[in-house]
Amino acid sequence: EKGRGVAQSHKEAVRWYRLAADQGGAVAQSNLGFMYREGRGVAQSDKEAVRWYRLAADQGYAGAQRDLAVMYAQGMGVAQNIQVALEWARKYAAQGASKGLELIRTIQNINMRLSSPAPRPPSTGRDSSTSRPADTCAQCGASSRPGGAPLKPCPRCKAVHYCGKACQKAHWEAVGGHKALCVPL
Length: 185
Known about the structure:
Elements: H1 10-22, H2 26-38, H3 46-58, H4 62-74, H5 82-94, H6 100-115, E1 152-153, E2 161-162, H7 165-173
Antiparallel strand pairs: 1-2
Helix pairs in contact: 1-2, 2-3, 3-4, 4-5, 4-6, 5-6
């Protein structure tokens, strides 16, 4: 897949992932799901991605549980189902995943937007899913921007906050970062 020691080839990567996935390898199943979701080496298919993610998630593979939660939350390859998304997100978080609580909050925010067409009330400054302040930088944990200015929410989903562009960019681009979880308002 990455061309380390061999010529880079998504098609060849898919072939090897499939061989391992067919033998029950959860990591290979999850990787194959990613290849289908992104259309790398195969025709893009969210439905096929969900199938492979589910096989890996059912074996307890945390990354696949996260990806399956996102697919259900966004209705990609499956009918959108926030409750099923939350079930998978909770399984992911229960394994100690550092981004688990953020994923749960993001899905809960999607649920709020879907179930309430009226504008949301102003923030109370606390997140009801945890007892900690909701407005902390999702990347570094700061409670304000430089100079004491309030944090700015993600411009797409408004579910997480940042103290500056550097933290927002780092969190967005990180493996398993906010890019995989962000759903536009």
